[in-house]
Amino acid sequence: MTTPEFTRNRENYCYRHPDRQSFVLCQRCLRTICPECQTPAAVGVICPECMAEQRREQTPAQRRAERRWSRSAPVAAVSSGQPVVTYTVIAICFGVYVLQLVLGPQVGQWLLFSAGYLYPQITGVFEPWRLLTSAFAHSSFWHVGLNMLSLWMIGRILEPLLGRGRFLALYLLSAIGGSVGVALLAPSSAVVGASGAIFGLFGALVIIARHLGANLAGILIVVGINLAIGFVPGMGISWQAHVGGLVTGALVGLVLARTRRRDQRALQIGLLAGLGIVLLLLLLLPPVIYG
Q1: What is the mean pLDDT of residues 208-215?
Q2: Domain that residue 127 falls in
Q3: What are phi and psi of 281, to 5 degrees?
Q4: Which CATH number belongs to the domain containing residue 273 in this structure?
Q5: Mean pLDDT of 186-203
């Protein structure tokens, strides 16, 4: 039951439909709106007047992107708006680094990737999980800190846009792609770090931003600078992992951008699985190339 004071308070009723009681506020103007007047937004809901104003403020590129993505139903957004996968990966990487400090360098040795761990016929060792585990170990505080800062910055953009499942698939496939790049281009190297996976996020962001109609200049400059740093002598950076992750992430981004409709879900999953299989098949090449 409601009290007379509650009934008399007009703030408890929709401002467009005064006879409809509601407890939901527009996130922009903070006026009460009923379910009929609510338009879902990134966080909360927006009333019709604020939605119209928001559309008037859109740039031509944003309008084109909205039409393009709304025609085919956007890839699912994270329901809570929180990049849970991003935060989880960051927590795992910092946790692994703490274990490296506490237990010693052998932790990194258990997780690092080198192509030799994939060919038991040559080395007598077969530890394929290192394709992924190397992306969660780091060589120094600055290594893990800078990588996690990059992940935090880009993950907060991509994960809410793609959804948790797609973002996780992108991250893991990019991590594998980075390891495949090392196996193909520097099979004698031993590497750790999330750089390959993060470059995969960059690659996907470029492709998806292109399909959204966004200005790519800033993104391309950042990607170019970070990629070029890997080629500086003496830096100890595996540019092979960067290239492998970047190419893989771009391909994943292309798949996600081209299969946005709900009726293409099975096709999207199939293409991503196929890409994963292709990455694994590429690992058959190093013994042939390098003997």
Answers
A1: 75
A2: 84-290
A3: -65, -30
A4: 1.20.1540.10
A5: 94
The answer to whether 249 touches 204, Cβ cutoff 8 Å, is: yes
Residue 76 lies in a domain: no
Res. 66: pLDDT tops 60: no
Instruction: Judge contact between 186 and 98, C-beta under 8 A.
Output: no
Helix residue ranges, H only, the chain = 4-8, 48-56, 60-71, 84-103, 106-111, 120-123, 130-133, 141-162, 164-185, 195-212, 217-229, 239-258, 265-282, 285-290
How many domains are contained in the chain?
Answer: 1
pLDDT of residue 161: 83
55-61: list long-range contacts, CB under 8 Å, 24+ apart. 61/213, 61/214, 61/215
Average pLDDT over residues 256-271: 90
The confidence score (pLDDT) of residue 211 equals 78
Residue 59 lies in a domain: no
Tokens 């993104």, residue? 219
Enumerate residues 6+ apart whose C-beta is below 8 A from 232.
none
C-alpha torsion 90→96→101→107, nearest 10: -150
Give catalytic residue positions: 195, 242
Report yes or no: 246 and 223 within 8 Å, Cβ to Cβ: yes
Residue 95 inside a domain? The answer is yes
* 83: phi then psi, degrees, rounded to nearest 5: -75, 75
Provide DSSP, 115-168: GGGG-HHHHS---TTHHHHGGG--SSHHHHHHHHHHHHHHHHHHHHHH-HHHHH
8 domain-assigned? no
